[in-house]
Amino acid sequence: MIPMSAEQRRADDARRILEVVRALAPGEVLGYGAVARRAGFPRGARLAARTLAANADPDLPWHRVLRADGRIAFPKGSAMFREQCRRLKAEGVDVREGRVRIAATPGPYALDRALWG
DNA sequence: GCGCTGACGCGAT
DNA sequence: CATCGCGCCAGCG
């Protein structure tokens, strides 16, 4: 095993998380924990959140990541909250009261296709 | 090392 | 449903 500095490890973890987020198709939403699982971090919900918070890539579809219960993670009414709402609606996602009805989400997607698919 | 904090999750109430 | 509590993981003072 080649030793990796803590800094390199963080960068690598972030890269893996971002890779999963970038793979999300328009209208496909996923929870932070689900994103982390796909990236190989069984209990990395917070890692996913941190990674998105630090991200600067303007092309990253960060708005497709929600909390496990389908609600937007930002405080209701905040600038980020409104921005995420706007972006989701812009791609046809049904957002009501800052939350997405996962079960009713159209397309072949669901919240991580029932969390494990 | 210690405690607090957060774009979290989940079961219990 | 809405809340609470507690677990979890990193980062930071």
Question: What distinguishing features does this structure have?
Answer:
two-stranded antiparallel ribbon; two-stranded parallel ribbon; 117 residues; DNA-binding; mainly alpha; single chain
Walkthrough of the structure:
The protein is mainly α. It contains 4 helices and 4 strands; from the N terminus they run αβααβαββ. The chain has helices at 6-22, 32-39, 45-54, 79-90; strands at 30-31, 65-66, 95-96, 99-100. The chain has a two-stranded parallel ribbon with strand order 1-2. The protein has a two-stranded antiparallel ribbon with strand order 3-4. Helix 1 packs across helix 2 and helix 2 (32-39) packs across helix 3. The longest helix is centred in the first third of the chain and has 17 residues, at 6-22. It is elongated, with a radius of gyration of 14 Å. The termini are far apart.
- Work out the helix count: 4
Q: What is the mean predicted local confidence, pLDDT?
A: 88
Percent of sequence in beta strands = 5-15%
The gross shape turns out to be elongated
Largest sheet: 2 strands, parallel
Q: Helix proportion of residues, in percent?
A: 40-55%
Radius of gyration: 14 Å
Low-confidence stretches: 110-117
Distance between the termini: 32 Å
Strand order in the sheet with the most strands: 1-2
* SSE pattern, N- to C-terminal: HEHHEHEE
Q: Tell me how many strands there are.
A: 4
Structural class: mainly alpha
